[in-house]
Design a protein that fits this description.
Radius of gyration of chain A: 20 Å
Largest sheet of chain A: 2 strands, antiparallel
Order of helices and strands of chain A: HHHHHHEHHHHHEHHHHHH
Shape of chain A: globular
CATH superfamily of the domain at 1-77 and 181-237 in chain B: P-loop containing nucleotide triphosphate hydrolases
Strand content of chain A: under 5%
Helix content of chain B: 25-40%
Oligomer: heterodimer
Helix content of chain A: over 70%
Structural class of chain B: alpha/beta
CATH class of the domain at 1-77 and 181-237 in chain B: Alpha Beta
Strand content of chain B: 15-25%
Number of strands of chain B: 10
CATH architecture of chain A: Orthogonal Bundle
Structural class of chain A: mainly alpha
CATH topology of chain A: ABC transporter involved in vitamin B12 uptake, BtuC
CATH class of chain A: Mainly Alpha
Order of helices and strands of chain B: EEEHEEHEHHHEHEHEEHH
Largest interface: A-B, 26 and 42 residues
Chain lengths: 332, 237
């Protein structure tokens, strides 16, 4: 079989992925501070992209309000670290807990809706949460507030040191998101989610609990988005409603990333995030044109292959680069 | 084991099922006949929870299941195939059946792998396990539909036109598979247009017309019924 003979490409890609992960783990020791800052953003967007892909690509919850949980995580971090004087490092996981708690009532509201109504509903909920955040005087109201110097210093006194620490936190969050979601996809739940992605009605009649899996996915993504929000706040050193709850940065770009990379695949969000940053880094001098290129690319990708760049590559490959099928293992 | 009473499903003014009654006994193979548009597939959709009935009651093993979701009904022991196959195209054939065994059958990965392997062998897909379901031919897709339904470990199996388009030889193979399933005490309700296949497998026939059963009994008696000949076989006068 010709496809089988290209197995070496899969092994090469896996080796590349491992090498890339190793370089990323050591990035602050290898790269200049400016690049470390860019890679920190990369890790945060990757985390958010993995989560949006899980929701929209597998559980068919096409939410455009996920930036709400990024913002909630940001505000929670500020609240714990700057107002309640909780240890800044401990404030990060606490931000995840707050995002999860907020996800519960949000879920009750938006799970009454489906498809386009869900998209609009999730957006409205996110806007409402943002407006509510803007009413919090202790958080600087509508114009936002900076993190106190004491909190910032706890991540490093000098700038390169601080950038390195925050990068490693961002890296740990992205790694946790990636590994935990991969393990989820390899479990019985992942089998059900993949079946649901391919044919919802067919999945229901073979016993896949569609509602249960949707609830699980929604609650799964919230704490990771909260963590991403906490990391973003550490990097930007301030919270404000329009930036912390930015629909463009944490939802629109993320949709581009997932669609270009390949929705409903594990590799898609990773590829999409890499492509997004390449375009941003190398084409940002041409100003607004790089957004037009981004938009045109995503439209082109969807027209040629709805499963994105990864879908295009996957046709030529005999296996996934990040395997989450149990079948071969199961029969051994 | 399955009792339908006064079952109705209306889409607006259209009465697809109209006060239908049916009792399926454990161990039988009930063949369901009916002209196109009689409501056969809709009947399966209501039994498996794809549609909620407008009125009437569905009892399975004595329990009312009319309000339950499709996955609960599957786990309670109702398996089905779709006339138009619904494969999980991006998964391998093995994973398709594994999903059914894990979720529908409630098995562990190990138990489910064994059942999936055995079901694939039974349905003639043993040499297709690593293919993507999206790459299968129509015949193999129909086999996969059956394999997924069987892997759930059903007590009641609903088959929707699985013999359509098969050659005589393939049809013979299918009938052999159904015999194996019957020997496992699986009760079967089979919608089919291929009359000779249905006649050789069914212990009882029922004819659906206008959203109700108009005949019900032994295959010979039902096929000889003038009412049936009029609506189903198209005889006039």
């Amino acid at each position: 079989m010709p496809r089988q003979s290209r197995l070496w490409i899969v092994y090469l890609a896996r080796a590349g992925l491992i090498a890339g992960a190793a370089v990323m783990a050591a990035a602050p020791m290898l790269f200049a501070t400016r690049d470390v800052a860019m890679l920190t953003e990369f890790m945060s967007l990757l985390t958010i992209a993995i989560m949006w892909n899980l929701l929209a690509g597998y559980a068919d919850i096409v939410s455009v309000g996920q930036h709400a949980f990024v913002g909630v995580g940001a505000y929670a971090l500020f609240g714990f670290a700057a107002i309640a004087h909780v240890d800044p490092y401990l404030s990060i996981p606490l931000a995840a807990v707050v995002a999860l708690v907020v996800a519960l009532p949000v879920m009750v509201i938006i799970f009454r809706l489906r498809t386009a109504y869900l998209a609009v509903g999730s957006w409205v909920v996110a806007e409402t949460i943002m407006l509510a955040a803007g009413k919090l005087a202790a958080f600087g109201g509508g114009s936002g507030i900076s993190l106190p110097v004491s909190v910032v210093r706890s991540f490093g006194h000098r700038i390169p040191e601080r950038y390195g620490t925050i990068y490693w936190i961002a890296f740990a969050v992205a790694a946790l998101a990636l590994v935990a979601t991969w393990l989820l996809m390899r479990s019985r739940i992942g089998l059900g989610l993949t079946a649901m992605r391919d044919n919802e009605e067919g999945a229901g009649v073979v016993g896949v609990n569609l509602i249960g899996l949707r609830v699980l996915c929604f609650l799964w993504t919230a704490p990771f988005l909260g963590l991403a929000g906490a990391v973003i706040t550490l990097q930007k050193l301030r919270v404000s409603p329009p930036a912390s709850f930015s629909i463009v940065d944490w939802t629109v770009y993320v949709i581009f990333i997932v669609v270009i990379g390949g929705i409903g695949s594990f590799e898609g969000p990773i590829i999409g995030t890499v492509v997004f940053f390449l375009i941003r880094e190398y084409l940002s001098e041409i100003g607004v044109w790089h957004f037009i290129i981004l938009g045109a690319l995503s439209i082109a990708v969807v027209l040629v292959e709805p499963r994105g760049l990864w879908g295009l590559v996957r046709r030529w490959l005999p296996a996934d680069v990040i395997p989450n099928s149990r079948s071969r293992r199961a029969r051994e | 084991m399955l009792n339908l009473t006064g079952l109705s499903l209306h889409f607006g003014a259209l009465r697809v099922l109209d006060g239908l009654d049916l009792a399926v006994e454990r161990g039988e193979v009930l063949g369901v006949l009916g002209p196109n548009g009689a409501g056969k597939t809709t009947l399966f959709n209501v039994i498996t929870g794809v549609h909620r009935p407008t009125a009437g009651e569905i009892r399975f093993d004595g329990r009312a299941i009319g309000r339950r979701r499709s996955w609960h009904r599957c786990r309670a022991g109702i398996g089905r195939t779709f006339q138009v196959p619904k494969p999980f195209t991006g998964m391998t054939v093995f994973d398709n059946v594994l999903t059914a065994a894990v979720h529908g059958g409630g098995l562990s990965f190990r138990g489910a792998s064994n059942r999936a392997g055995e079901t694939l062998a039974l349905t003639g897909l043993a040499n297709r396990t690593d293919r993507l379901a999206g790459d299968l031919s129509l015949l193999d897709l129909k086999r996969l539909e059956l394999a997924k339904a069987v892997a759930c470990g059903p007590q009641l199996l609903l088959l929707d036109e699985i013999a359509g388009g098969l050659t005589d030889h393939e049809c013979g193979v299918l009938l052999d598979i159904l015999k194996v399933l019957r020997n496992r005490d699986i009760t079967i309700v089979w919608i089919e247009h291929v009359l000779h296949a249905l006649k050789s497998a069914a212990t009882r026939l029922a004819v659906l017309h206008g959203g109700r059963f108009i005949a019900d009994g032994s295959p010979e008696a039902v096929l000889a019924d003038p009412k049936v000949q009029e609506v189903y076989l198209g005889a006039v006068d």
